[in-house]
Amino acid sequence: MSRLDFISLAGLRPDGRRAKEIRRIRCRLGVLREADGSAYLEMGQTKVIAIVKGPHEVSRRSDMLIDKAIVNCEFNLAPFAGSDRRKRRPTDRKTVEMAMSIKAVFEGAVMLELYPRTQIDLYIHLIQTDGGQLPASINAASLALTDAGISMRDMVVSCSAGHVDGQAVMDLNHMEQSHGGAYVPLAILPRGSEILLAKMEARLPLDIFQEVLATALEACRQVHAIMRGEVREHHAALLAAQLAL
Amino acid sequence: MAIRDGFTHTINTNAFVLETLRGGKQRIDGRELNTLRQIAFQFTRSEGQASVLVQWGRTQTLAVVSAEVVPPYPDRPTDGALMFNVELSKMAEASVGLLRASPLATEITRIIERGIRDSQALDTETLCIVAGEKVWQLRVDVHILDNGGNLVDAAALAAIAALQHFRRPDVTVSGEGFVEVHHSDEREAQPLALHHVPLCITFALFDDMGKQRVVVDPDEVEEAVMKGRVTIALNAHREVCTLHKNGGMAMSAETLLACADVAAAKVVALHERLREELQKADAAARQAREQRLRGGAAFASHTAHLASLMQAAQPMDETADLTRVGHLGYDDLHVTGKVRDAPERALGGGARGLQGDEAAKSALFAQMAKAAADASAGLESKLGKAPVGKRKGKDTASGVGDAELDEFDKVAAGLKQQAASGARSLGGTVSAPAPAADDDAMDSGSEEEQVVVLKSSFKTGNEAASDMAAAASAAAAKASAQAGDSDDDLMAAVKSKPKGKGKARQKK
Predict the structure, then answer these.
(1) Which of B31, B113, B329, B406 sits CB 3.0–4.6 Å from B35 for a disulfide?
(2) Nearest CA in chain B to A205
(3) Does residue B194 sit in the same domain as residue B287?
(4) Which domain covers residue B405, as residue numbers?
């Protein structure tokens, strides 16, 4: 494999971005009428659909909590999503890990005490992947929960950061993520910049890790600005439609 | 105790833990906020497998590493495989309420995978045997035996310790691509090529009415009360290998970085501790292997002998007799002859004794004793001087001291007794060895004395003492291979002095 410059001499990455630029984000709320809440999100070439069902009665009585809601998450990576067509088992380790991460994140963000004895289901469908599966899924789920009207402490925003060619970069695509360097997906509550999820693969010296963490935080803030704008637009349109009636 | 006093999570417990943490100094088990619990290790090594039992406070984890030769993945023909699996046993589940095994086990497995495999701790290319055809597949199974809190750290520590303790069997690849895996008895097994040692440290986050409190290494009570958790894995070079914060209570970036700093310090100390334990365990494993290879009882007495000699050699100061330095002879450093391929082996308690029938064995013993007697008697009359071993109190050129000679005599006496008892038990006869003049020559270790004499005829006085040790093997070899004996002079001497032989016979 020929050596690829992840950051060229001009400071551009292969897809034309600079080190501290996130990919284009497009999102839509309420894309499915049947679901309680739904959202479609694109981060570059990574495309996700998130569906929320709930709060509804707990399907398994034994799981019910009397003071809180429980959050369930199901993560599906479509067989056609990656470059190889591969059908993954639902118990595949990485799938289970993703689902558990998303569930844990929203258990920390949703005000579960307001919905006791109920269950909130999250279904995440990844239909195209180009790096950043976890951040995209979390963002889509966040929008879907907003669309469902479920109370949260704050909107959860997520983005990734990494370290390529000696520079900290934001929002890694598939090539940058899989080249073996550091990859740090981060999910925060933007108001207080509180970290809900932070993971890392590969090795980084501690001081470089600080830089990468700061980059990831900044990336999340940029994502938040875009997502908040979209949510406002969506609800403004809804409000206008209601008032027009 | 059949039923453990389980810990029940109540409002009171919650309040108690949080109140203790408010004090800012201690936790409910008396530890400080940044102190890890006591950790103990137990290492085991066997053929193609290694295991470590880690006791971390009340948490117990067992990691087992095993290896297999398999074809590689098609897209990575030169890489071996490293697989992890963490299992929560029923013992762990029963001890603390509900532990839904699979998601937690999966989470711990993924943390360990990311920490060890994804951070390139083990160079999988070194596991390649034949590119594209055969590679090593290492499998690390971690069993959580008891849950006393903080399973992640204990499991990760057990996994990496087991990988460090593991020895991969040596292989040879023949021209046609045929791979032969050697038993570790034939060829010493190799350690794995680990670039660095990642170790996990977990922090617990508590919500004390809005204020966040952080402690290191939560035990099971603190785990039930905590609202969030973050695991950071680092190596001793202050490199972050993996980070795992999966939901739970939110934390600020400053807190996260502060935790990373604390974790870095803890990892350095833990790494040092692990290194010491591994060295001890490796030494013990090697010694066990040596013992197994060379035979039990003989080696045990030999090591005791060696140890006593070593002790006698210290301290090394000006006033010490410098001649005592050279007392370590060939036999002190090797346990050959006595136990290897020697008829006496059956007596020495070695694992591999003679496989012949009893009659052959007894005949052999008789031959040995006879030859030894003949040779010494013949030589003595020929050379007309006392056996070398009789140089008690005389400082020989090679610097053998008194004490060492006595020690050697005792060992020789023991062996002689064993030979005699062995021959008797097999129903054979032993012709009593009968060297000449001196009385004390007859006593303790007379057979050995004769053996010493045997060698001395072919070596100068300088080498005599150092050859004392070789004499034991030499005697046996000579006795059992008379026909092909290269010491023709000796046999000629023996054959030419029938009179001396008869005279010696008469004495006993």
Answers:
(1) B31
(2) B239
(3) yes
(4) 358-483
